[in-house]
């Protein structure tokens, strides 16, 4: 009776228990896994016929040497669970598989056998097109090591996303917010939507380019007053006027070059400028017959003495010939730096200096008096509002001066 209970393959006559494949279209056709895989055909049975798996579900797919001893039925439940709950929901998948499998065992078995195993290598390509990339920064954004949390809030900076509350071209997303894909659209409408997407991509690239520049040149710490690079660099050596002017001229290249590239370019151009100046100096020495460095030092000392003597002679000649003029200009030392001084004549300068009156106030009073005089001559009554700083003595002195200078008639004054 024991021999009669054994099942045999109808093709190779080998024992097929506990697993066999039964044809659902032919009677009494049961094949072993080897013959079924080879596509064996016998009688009216064909390889494309439907089949039914006849087993007790306790055999292993990966062999007895695989750790954990997962049976065929558990593997089938695992694949059903991954399709139903999705990758990562290991607790729900473990409950679906049952048989006292823990979430950790389910995760390790699926990753080892179906992702990193031979099946995963054969089915999962190395590069997946249109794969979603995680752009978040778990360790903090590029600016996080340099600025504190309070400073991030001040800048509106989100370190995990490497974004700001207000980005460059903040309304760029409006180009694509209203887009939708409809399969019955015409080609013109589809191309128009593609153009909108291209415009949006260009704006995103420009936004990222500006972020890279700000990061590379440490603009955020500089905005917060924390950029010590310039101070340390200036403390190491004295920055000359030529270096400042050259760096100012090259500022337009900041947006086209990285910080290190710009520094290398600046150093090279400054060295070239210094070399050209040194070459001109050596050519001047050669023109004056100097061929040795020692002789050039003596020549520079003598040239400095000659220039000093010329300066002393020029100062002495100016003191001898222009002493009177210098003394006259010294009278106006109190008002010569005030606004409106260049508008006054020499006599008006003397008057303002004697009255201790600023040129602007004098011009204001002169304008008021002359306007009143002209209106009275035309028979128009005039009663101008005089400034508060004008007293009777000051008004009388200015009116006498204007009368003597011929600005107003004596009767009117």
TrEMBL record:
Q: One Pfam match, by short name?
A: Myb_DNA-binding
Which intervals hold domain ZZ-type?
Answer: 4-59
Give me the Gene Ontology terms describing cellular component.
Answer: nucleus; SAGA-type complex
- Name the Gene3D superfamilies for this protein: 3.30.60.90, Homeodomain-like, Winged helix-like DNA-binding domain superfamily/Winged helix DNA-binding domain
MF terms from GO for this chain are: chromatin binding; transcription coactivator activity; zinc ion binding
Q: Name one GO biological process term.
A: regulation of transcription by RNA polymerase II
Spell out the subcellular localization from the entry: Nucleus
Keyword annotations for this protein? Metal-binding, Nucleus, Transcription, Transcription regulation, Zinc, Zinc-finger
User: What range(s) does the SANT domain occupy?
Assistant: 65-118
Q: Which InterPro entries match?
A: ADA2-like_ZZ, Ada2/TADA2, Ada2b_C, Homeodomain-like_sf, SANT/Myb, SANT_dom, TADA2A_B-like_dom, WH-like_DNA-bd_sf
Query: Where would I find the Myb-like domain in this sequence?
Result: 67-114
Q: How does it assemble?
A: Interacts with GCN5L2, SMARCA4, SMARCE1 and PAX5. Component of the TFTC-HAT complex.
Q: Which PANTHER family match?
A: TRANSCRIPTIONAL ADAPTER 2-BETA (PTHR12374:SF63), TRANSCRIPTIONAL ADAPTOR 2 ADA2 -RELATED (PTHR12374)
Function, in words: Coactivates PAX5-dependent transcription together with either SMARCA4 or GCN5L2.
Tell me what this protein is called: Transcriptional adapter
Task: Print the organism lineage.
Answer: Eukaryota, Metazoa, Chordata, Craniata, Vertebrata
């Amino acid at each position: 009776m024991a021999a009669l209970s054994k099942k045999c393959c109808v093709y190779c006559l080998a024992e097929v228990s506990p697993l066999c494949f039964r044809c659902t279209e032919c009677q009494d056709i049961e094949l072993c896994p080897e013959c079924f895989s080879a596509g064996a055909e016998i009688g009216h049975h064909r390889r494309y016929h439907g089949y039914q798996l006849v087993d007790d579900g306790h055999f292993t797919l990966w062999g007895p040497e695989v750790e954990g001893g997962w049976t065929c039925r558990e593997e089938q439940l695992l694949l059903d669970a991954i399709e139903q709950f999705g990758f990562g929901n290991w607790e729900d998948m473990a409950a679906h598989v049952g048989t006292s499998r823990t979430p950790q065992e389910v995760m390790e078995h699926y990753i080892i056998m179906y992702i990193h195993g031979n099946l995963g290598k054969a089915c999962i390509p190395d590069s997946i097109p249109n794969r979603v990339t995680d752009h978040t920064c778990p360790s903090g954004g590029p600016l996080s090591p340099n600025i504190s949390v309070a400073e991030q809030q001040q800048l509106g900076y989100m370190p995990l996303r490497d974004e700001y509350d207000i980005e460059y071209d903040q309304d760029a997303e409006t180009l694509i917010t209203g887009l939708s894909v409809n399969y019955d659209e015409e080609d013109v409408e589809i191309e128009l939507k593609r153009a909108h997407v291209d415009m949006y991509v260009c704006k995103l690239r420009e936004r990222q380019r500006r972020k890279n520049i700000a990061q590379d040149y440490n603009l955020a710490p500089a905005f917060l007053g924390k950029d010590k690079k310039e101070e340390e660099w200036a403390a190491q050596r004295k920055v000359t006027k030529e270096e400042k002017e050259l760096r100012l001229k090259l500022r337009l290249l900041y947006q086209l070059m990285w910080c290190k590239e710009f520094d290398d370019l600046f150093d090279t151009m400054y060295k070239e400028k210094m070399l050209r100046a040194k070459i001109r100096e050596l050519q001047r020495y050669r023109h004056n017959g100097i061929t040795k460095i020692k002789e050039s030092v003596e020549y520079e000392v003598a040239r400095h003495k000659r220039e000093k003597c010329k300066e002393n002679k020029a100062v002495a000649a100016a003191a001898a010939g222009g002493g009177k003029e210098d003394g006259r200009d010294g009278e106006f030392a109190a008002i010569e730096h005030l606004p409106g001084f260049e508008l006054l004549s020499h006599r008006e300068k003397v008057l303002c200096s004697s009255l201790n009156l600023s040129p602007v106030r004098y011009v204001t009073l002169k304008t008021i008096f002359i306007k009143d005089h002209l209106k009275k001559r035309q028979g128009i009554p005039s009663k101008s509002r005089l400034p508060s700083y004008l007293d009777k003595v000051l008004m009388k002195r200015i009116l006498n001066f204007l009368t003597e200078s011929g600005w107003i008639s004596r009767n009117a004054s």
